[in-house]
Amino acid sequence: MAQTIAAGAAVPRGMLIADAWAQLGDAVAPLSNASGRPLARTVKLLLDPLVLRPNLNPRFAGGLIGVEHVDELRRAVSDAGPALAATAAWFRLLKQARRRAGVTEGNPQDLYFQRCFELAHEHGDPHGLPDAESIAAETVADVRAERGEVTVDRLRRFMTDPDQVVRLAGLLQNAWEDRAAPQPVPQDGLAAFLDVCATRPDERLWKALAANGIGTAEAAELDKPRVALDYGLTAEERPIPPVLGDRASKRQLPPPFDRSIMERLFAAFTAAFHRESMADIPSMVVGEIHRSAAAWQLSEEPSRVAMALGRDASSGIDYWTGPGRTRSDANGRLQARYSREAYVHAVLRQPDPESAKVPEDLKWEIMNVQEPYLRRLWARLHGRELRGEPTAADQVWDLLDGVFRSVLLDQRDRLRRLLERDGGRA
C-alpha cells in the first residue's frame, strides 16, 4: 500500500488497520466482525492500548497516518499476530466457560478481551495446553468476583424486592413532591464561555458558572410546555416523574427523562467503564431517585452547566445556516462540522423524499440534530456522574464536540447501512 501513495500523503487509519488485520487470517476471527474487520472493541481494548499504543506512539494516533509510518503500523499489527491469534483462542474458551458457569451479566468482550491478551502472553496458544479449560474457568470466576455485587442481576433483584419497591416508591414520590422549581437569571455568561472553550477555556468563568448555579437556573424552562419535548429529552408535554421499573433493554431506551430508574442505571451498567468507580447498589438507586427530581435530572452543577452549554452550542444548527449567523464560536464550529457532512447534503437535496428510502425518524434526526445531540450529551454526563468523574474547563469543548461528532457518525453509519441494504449508492 505504501508504495502506491504519493510522498507527503496520508492514509485513513481505519482503512490501514483493517488491511493489516486482514493479513492475520481466520486465526483472529473471534475478534473480527462479519466482514473480517476488527471489532470496534478489538480496536478499543486490544489494538490501541496494547499493540499500537498511540499515547506512546503519536505517529499512530489521529484519523490519518503519514505515509512514512504506514509500513511501521502494518508491521506492529503483523508482529502482534501470534499473540492476537492466541488471544482469540482464549476468548473462545472463556466464552465457553462463561456459558457453563451460567454467567449472563456484562459484555464478554469488555470483560475478557484484555484478560485473554494477558493469558496469551502468559500461556501462549491454549490449543494442546492440558489445563486450558481450568484456566479459562478460573479466569471467568476471577472476573466475576472482581465485579462483586455491582451487577445488573443484583440491581434487578434489589429493585424488584417487594419490601424495597414500597420504600423506593415512597422516596421517589417525596423527591418529586419536594423538588423546587429553578428560577431563571438574567445574566448567565454561557455565551462568553462558548466563545473561548474550544481555544482558551476560562477556568475562572467555568467555576463561576457552576458556583452561581447557572446550570440550575437554565433548567427553569424545562417545566414549560413542549420545551423538554422539543429538546428530545422527553416524549411528554412536560417532564413527569419516572417509574421505578423492573426491566430494561439498551436497544429500546426511551428519551432520558422518560426512562425508569432501572433503565437509567441499566444503561450505565452496560457501558464500558470501571465498575470499581460505582457506588453500591442501594446507594446508586437512592441517588438516581433524587437525581431524577433535580434540575436537568442531573445531580452535579457542572453537569447542568454543560447541558446548558450544549443546548446553546447546538441551537439553530441546520443545513442552510451560514457562518455569519452562528451564535458563538462553539456554535460555529459545530455548524461547520455539520455542514461538511456529505450525507446531510444528500438527504436534504433529495427532490423526492421517498426516493432517499430514509425512515422518517432518521430524516428527522438529520434535520433536527439538536435532539439526538442533547440526548447523547445527557447520557454522557449522567455516566460521568455515576463514575464520579468531575468536568474541568479544559474538558468541556472535547465533551461538546465529541458528543456532536458521535451523533453525526452514528447517523452516517445508519444511513450507509440502510443504503447498502436497499442496494443504493452512498
Order of helices and strands: EHHEHHHHHHHHHHHHHHHHHH
Low-confidence stretches: 1-7
Strand portion, in percent? under 5%
Average pLDDT taken over every residue: 85
Largest sheet: 2 strands, antiparallel
Shape: globular
Strand-pairing-aware structural class? mainly alpha
- Give the neighbour order of strands across the main sheet: 1-2
Helical content band: 55-70%
Give structural notes.
The model is unreliable at 1-7 (pLDDT under 50). The chain is globular and about 70 Å long. The chain has 426 residues and is mainly α. It has 20 helices and two strands. The chain has helices at residues 13-22, 40-52, 67-79, 81-101, 108-123, 132-147, 152-160, 162-177, 190-194, 203-211, 214-218, 227-230, 261-269, 281-292, 301-313, 329-339, 342-348, 360-367, 370-387, 393-421, and strands at 10-12, 64-66. The chain has a two-stranded antiparallel sheet with strand order 1-2. The longest helix has 29 residues, at 393-421.
Features:
20 helices, 3 domains, two-stranded antiparallel sheet, about 0% strand, about 425 residues
List the helices and strands and how they pair.
Elements: E1 10-12, H1 13-22, H2 40-52, E2 64-66, H3 67-79, H4 81-101, H5 108-123, H6 132-147, H7 152-160, H8 162-177, H9 190-194, H10 203-211, H11 214-218, H12 227-230, H13 261-269, H14 281-292, H15 301-313, H16 329-339, H17 342-348, H18 360-367, H19 370-387, H20 393-421
Antiparallel strand pairs: 1-2
